[in-house]
Amino acid sequence: MTRTAEKIDALVREDSSMAAALEAIRDEADRNGGEVQWADVSDDLTSGQWGRLIEKGVLVDGDQGFEIADREAYDRVLDGDGDGGSGAAADVDIDEEESSWSQWDKLAGVGALLLMPGYWFDSIQNVVGNAVNIVLGPLDAALPFYAVILSVALLTGLYSSLLQANLMNTEVMGKYQERMKSVQNEQKELREKKKDAEERGASEAEIERIENEIEKAREEQMEAMADNLGMFKEQFRPMVWIMLLTIPLFLWMYWTIRTGAIGAAEETVVMPLVGEIEWQEGVLGPMQAWIVWYFLCSMGFSQLIRKSLNIDMSPSSA
């Protein structure tokens, strides 16, 4: 919705009789080649309504009278198709409650933060490692360690995909993107409108009004960019749950390798393009072999799971 359409909507909401006045102006403009004078419509609207239309920039100076500033937007609003144009930021309805975190989400975030120091402190690694080992110890005893990492990667890929599918509201994310795109489209329309006005030699007052509208559109863009924090919150919401579940598994793998619990026979692995290498040996810079193996397996399984379950994480405005 353009600025002219917004102004007309606001005027109609303030004064219900304004709709009939606008219709009368349109009919008279059609009869007079696009221009209208006060004397032509004085029987159909009050002088106050006429003044408001000029004040708001709905009517602008013409050759012999006044003309409608944006006839296309004017017609859309009067014909009940006001939403058919480009959407202004205010027209994209985003319910902030939809992207708010629940108490459980916040607790999951706190829990993930409390587990993070385990990467640096052996005491935390030992506590978490021993606790997780109660569950994964039998798996480690039954499978070679590379297969254990592969199994953990499959598990993390599964619950990561399911958590993202159920906790990330792609519709809300799509609305945030739609609002930003709407503001950008509005700025483009206003710049084109200003260019057209300059080419046809419009009055300085009309050009100044368009420049003011462009400035307001810029302010809307800045507000929309600030509001994009809601989209970041929506994206990060499933991440706290994924971290809460993944950090203990990660610490357990690190603890198992560091303490030598996997046994001497499994301390090395043959990796593609690398050859035989120890689990704690660097492969990609400081990244150790077990971390690289885990991430390769995890990314592969995540893609397969999303394809199999038809999980689409792209933003949607539907």
From TrEMBL:
Transmembrane segments: 141-163, 239-257, 287-305
Region annotated Disordered, chain positions: 184-205
Recorded superkingdom: Archaea
Xref: Pfam families: EMC3_TMCO1
Keyword GTP-binding (UniProt): no
Membrane topology term: Multi-pass membrane protein
Location relative to the cell: Membrane
Annotated keywords: Membrane, Transmembrane, Transmembrane helix
GO-annotated cellular components: membrane
Protein name: DUF106 domain-containing protein
Organism of this sequence: Natrinema soli
Lineage of the organism: Archaea, Methanobacteriati, Methanobacteriota, Stenosarchaea group, Halobacteria
